[in-house]
Amino acid sequence: MPVVTLAEIDATARKAARGCGCPWGLAEEAGKSARWLASHGLPGAESLAALLQNRDGCCAGTGIPCALASGAAFADRATEIGEAPVTTGENEASLLVLAQIGRAADALDRGFVLEWQGGGAKLARHALAIEGQDAASAMTCTAAEVESGTPPSPASRLVDDAAWATLNAFAHRILVPASDASRAGAGAGIRDND
Hints:
194 residues; 5-stranded antiparallel β-sheet; 7 strands; 8 helices; single chain; two-stranded antiparallel sheet; alpha+beta
């Protein structure tokens, strides 16, 4: 399993989502969410790789919202979430939705409680506590008093080989193949400060 930095997870995940066809905004959400999950010891790169493999095309083109779009829409309304529960709806990668609510908790310095069948999570600024089973597809969210934590360590994380290879394969889709035209005019030219 490769050891990668959180910044590498963010960058590679962003490029992979873009290579899958996501618009830049959702691609940035993908990178930040994968990084957030990894910083909390959860499988961020692995969750995103599974989502991209299962969809291979952005929800913007299919019309069926994915966890990235659902989570972004949910997080955009985070300031409106109060004691009345708000439901996320169905999605196939609930950890990515959880990550976006966690990022909203960090940014807003607010606490949230997510609940799903068989489990739940408490989120606050730099804090995450998951109880019960892994996140189910439908979740409800309420605002709550949850104690803040300390920022996660910026240390490197282990990432599953297959997931990392999948993310890199999607990321390579946005690269321009080398050709005579792409090399023409490349380099410093006659002088080094051209």
